[in-house]
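Tip: read the tokens left to right.
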């Protein structure tokens, strides 16, 4: 019985972590509406991010703690006022806030992290494009204060957003 459970769990774990193989093969088109598009994207982001982690795992050192993105929150579209030297910035940049629940597995325990994201997107003639992504990590500084946001457009979630947007635009043809 235990042997069968192990065999079954070996097949189930990838589906739970990465999603089903056909999850992204649905014949849906890329929505033009920002809110609908972001809702779809955040549903898929954990699977995209976990594939990026796996593809880069050979380049990580052996001392790195494995990371898995479990789920992304529902988006918050309430924008922050953006201005530069008292002048309002371009309205074509759309703001989205969301969080992710991530797990890191150490040798003896699992660490659960909730990270916060501020995603800036713009619509171009080719579709939606990532402008920038800022992350506030769940960890706190030595004195217990939250860490400041960091620009993470080239991080795992930033790469996942760019890949998803590319795939979304590809399905629109």
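Filled-in amino acids:
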């Amino acid at each position: 019985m235990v042997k069968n459970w192990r065999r079954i769990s070996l097949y189930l774990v990838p589906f739970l972590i990465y999603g089903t193989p056909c999850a992204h093969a649905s014949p849906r088109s890329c929505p033009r509406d920002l809110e609908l598009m972001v809702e779809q994207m955040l549903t898929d982001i954990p699977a995209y991010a976990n594939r990026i982690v796996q593809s880069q795992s050979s380049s990580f050192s052996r001392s790195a703690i494995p990371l898995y993105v479990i789920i992304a929150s529902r988006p918050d579209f309430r924008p922050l006022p953006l201005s530069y030297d008292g002048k309002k910035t371009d309205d074509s940049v759309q703001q989205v806030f969301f969080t992710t629940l991530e797990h890191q597995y150490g040798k003896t325990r699992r660490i659960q992290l909730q990270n916060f994201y501020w995603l800036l997107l713009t619509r171009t003639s080719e579709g939606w494009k990532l402008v920038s992504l800022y992350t506030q990590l769940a960890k706190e500084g030595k004195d217990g204060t939250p860490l400041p946001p960091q620009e993470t457009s080239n991080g795992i979630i930033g790469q996942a957003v760019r890949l998803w947007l590319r795939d979304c635009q590809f399905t629109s043809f």
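The chain has one domain: 32-82+89-139+146-171. Residues 1-27 have pLDDT under 50 and may be disordered.
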